[in-house]
Amino acid sequence: MRLFRLRGDDARDMSNTNPSPKMPPTRVPASWYWSAPNFAVLIFALAMLVLVWVLQRQESETARAAMARDVQWAEQTMRLHMQGTEEFLGQLARELAAGTLDGDGFQVRANQHIANNPELVNIVWVTGDQRVKWTAPFDTTDWLVGDGLSQVQVAVLARSRELGRPVYGEAYVNGRNMAVLEVYLPVQQGRQPLGAIVAVYSIERMVAHLVPSWFGEKYRLSFTNGKGELLAANSTLRALDESLEFSVPLDPPGNGLALEATAYHVDSELPKGFPIAVIVGLSFFVLWSLWALRAHMLRRVRVEKERDRLFNLSLDMLAVMAHDGLFRRCNPAFERILGYSPEAMPGSSLLDYIHPDDVADSVVRLRSLAAGTPEAFENRCRCADGSYRWLAWSINSVPEEKLMYAVAHDITGRKAAEEALHHEYAFRQSMEESLITGLRAIDLTGRITYVNPAFCRMTGWSREDLVGSAPPFPYWPPDEIEALQHNLELTLSGNAPSTGFEMRVQRKNGESMDARFYLSPLIDGDGRQTGWMASITDITEPKRVRAQLEAAHERFVAILDGLDAAVYVADAANDEILFANRAFKSIYGFDAVGQRVGIYGLPTPPDTNWYDVDPRRLSPQQVPRELYDGELQNGLSGRWYHIRERATRWVDGRVVRMAIATDITDKKRVEEENRAQQERLQRTSRLITMGEMASTLAHELNQPLAAIANYSMGCVNRLQSGEYRQEDILTAMQKASAQAERAGRIIRRVREFVKKSEPRRQLVALSGIVEDAIGFVEIDARRHVAQVVSQIPADLPPVFADSVMIEQVVLNLVKNGIEAMRETPAEERVLTVSARIAEHNLVEVSVADRGHGLSDEAREKLFSPFYTTKAEGMGMGLNICRSIVEFHNGRLWVDANPAGGCIFRFTLPLETPLESARIDA
Amino acid sequence: MKAPESTPEQIIYLVDDDEALRDSLVWLLESQGFKVAAFASAEDFLRRWRPEFNGCLLLDVRMPGMSGLELHERLRAQYCTLPVIFITGHGDVPMAVAALKKGAVDFIEKPFNDNDLLHLVSQCLAKERESRDRRRQDAEVSRRLDQLTQREREVLDLIILGKLNKQIADVLGISIKTVEVHRARVMEKMGAQSLAELVQNVMAIEGVAGRS
User: Fold this and answer.
1) Does the pTM of the predicted model rise above 0.80?
2) CA angle A387, A388, A391 (to 5 degrees)
3) What is the ipTM of this complex?
4) Which end of chain B is more exposed for a tag (fewer CB within 10 A), N or C?
């Protein structure tokens, strides 16, 4: 889970950071390489323009040069013509001057010349008085013979006379709207001015005739005067190329006359601006196409960028693969999902990453892909960290390119979910199968929609029987349908008790069982309630078990409460009483549970006087173990308890001390008494035996004696009455005799017994016997705060006696004495045991007390059997004592103590061989 | 010696475990004319005891098995009215005293003087006979009382209270004549010769109870 989240974070980080560094590099070159073509196109266009301009310039220069040549050639031609005319005129002038020329001659010559030179209009001879004398052609009207010359003409004439050479007048337009040029050649006879020959050129004719015809086709020739006015031109109709014109001054005639040639516009050739237009147009076209291309490229780039982004930002793994499964290109999702850098992937094969279990299937898929069939499949791929992730591959193949385009979607989560779902389903399935709780669902109308196998087992009805059935359901006992219907209505109205219903279920085979129904609303995926789900538990067994448990618990409590012993259970750690039985509560109070043990003065850890181990430190593994076993007196009631304490494990697992306190006060008292009795009995065992023997002997002897008496008296009575039969009397007497024998047998038996239990008499020191006896009563003496003083003379000779029996006698007398002093003031409670040698080889032993003394009557009965002054006495003690003493040939008697109380005295013989001899007999 | 006081139906029942003593006692008692039935154990006697047993019981205190005291208790529990004399040995005196307190007639200590025993037994039998006669008489009176009719019984009750015939007639609301008839019938049925005898007989069984 943790790993997964980390992975997810990484993926997010990458998706955030990845695109930004990738974007700028694609943007940088775009601006300059897109302006370069534009710039180049502009430069190229400019260069082309320059080139065209240069070419045109060159062409124009060439044309101009050719024109200049042509024009100069034309001017030269014209001057040659004009020089020819001037020569002709000079000839005429000389003839004239020579006078060889008459008018006719003139006429002929002049007309001839004019005919040859069509540019000439008139040849006139002007006399010195500036009068026209001759005119050729004669019919000309411009020059009329006899007319005078105009001022301008006179001036020209004058200047030619002055210069003596031909002078050209200024061109002008004559009356016939003809531009004419006049040349004046002076005629001199010697030094005598005779006038001048004037040739009139028609400028128009000059243009038309003085240049060849091709020239006229090529150029428009025109003459302009000094003022720039057009004088004549060879054509005015055709379009002119104004840019190409050449003007040459015509000198002579001078005067500002200029020959100007203008090239005609050539229609058949391309217009001069055409190349430029073409270039500009093409440039624009190129620019436009570039722009269009750029737009297209931009679109392409955008599309590509989008595709790249799609490729790079795709959450699914995208890859281009060769047909053999080798990666060609992978998107960053590979790193995000599998952890491999997309740059490192190309060259490795898809099969390298596939889980061994999935390889076979994947190979089949790849083979199918190689054949061109698209495939979609799922497999597990190994991540960089070694784990495997489920991927859903969708691969399309392009056989022509031998490439496959793959999309892989990480379905690990889905797989996990599917797996979990599968597991969950299987789990639920098995749960449903193994569930022992019955489940039943009903819809909102009460119809059964679902039952689980446990429910079917419980009811004995099959699923088919139950599902779809409406109430009353088949498992309802017929006699409870009404109540169950009511329950169902409660359920459907949502008022079913949270503790469920307890009901009887009738099984299919007629058996019935107790079941408990718990109901909860059935909610579907949309949160709508679709019905009610009931879980049914078979409580037949639990009910029985509960009843048994309750009974067992009651028995347990009854037993514990019935015990006389107080039982309690206390937490070992905090001393809290967890359980106490009735006996305990009746002793310590009925609120004992929950209290601390300590408040009752009962043993409480860590009292090392009580516990060898500290119960608080015991772990549950160390129990059960014995903690304490002993007796304890309750400080309040003074009663004794035997307490047995164990450390054990309580029902909830903690360590507890369980103590059983048995009231042993009575037992203890009885024991105490028994012990005292036992002590007494043991000490006097032989005496008791003798006493018993005596008692038995008396009873035993009574029988035969009584029988003898009866027989005898019966005989006597009969004999007195005289009504008897002799044989009866005989029989009776024989019977009496037999009883006498029986008595004798009893006596014999007693003697045998006495022989067997004969005292072992020997010489013993009386002082030792007395000291032993006093030692026995020390406890009694201390209890009665009485002092026992022994005053046995050290030089007393030994006595011949059974030390045990005599000790008993002394003991008996001492005890009696101590008890007799019960009422005596404590300081006077002194008992003295003394001995002295009396006459007749006797030792007299005295036991003197300071008690209440004895009345005469008491003294009389003192030694009779069964007489006692003591509540617990048997009345045998003194009797036996006397028997013992008498057995030793002594005497036991009592005297009053002069100091108050009594003195018991007995005598014992010193050693006498006679005594021993008598006993033997 | 003769045995004039021993009536044929009176028997001395003797329980003692000691055969010699038992046999000798039978011998002795029979010598005085008593009828004796001897039993070897308390259990044996208890088994054979019938309420009709008449006479007295001589019982040894100390016996193996059920003791004499115990048998006494058992018999008392069964409403046995036989008077009991305990025979005790030496040292059984406190026991015998306890038995006396529980209703035994007397005890005698072994070995005993035969005259003492015989005297005791005779006394005991006489006392028994007397009480038996009284019981029988009481039973007769009570039987006769049962034969009276309701009215006669009412009349009798008033007679015992010392009422005159007239007073009786007033109380019961009947005529004096009728009272007289009833009275005669009562006398006849009760078998009384005189008024004094009638009253005495009835008082003997009912007077102590103080019947109103």
Assistant:
1) no
2) 150
3) 0.70
4) C
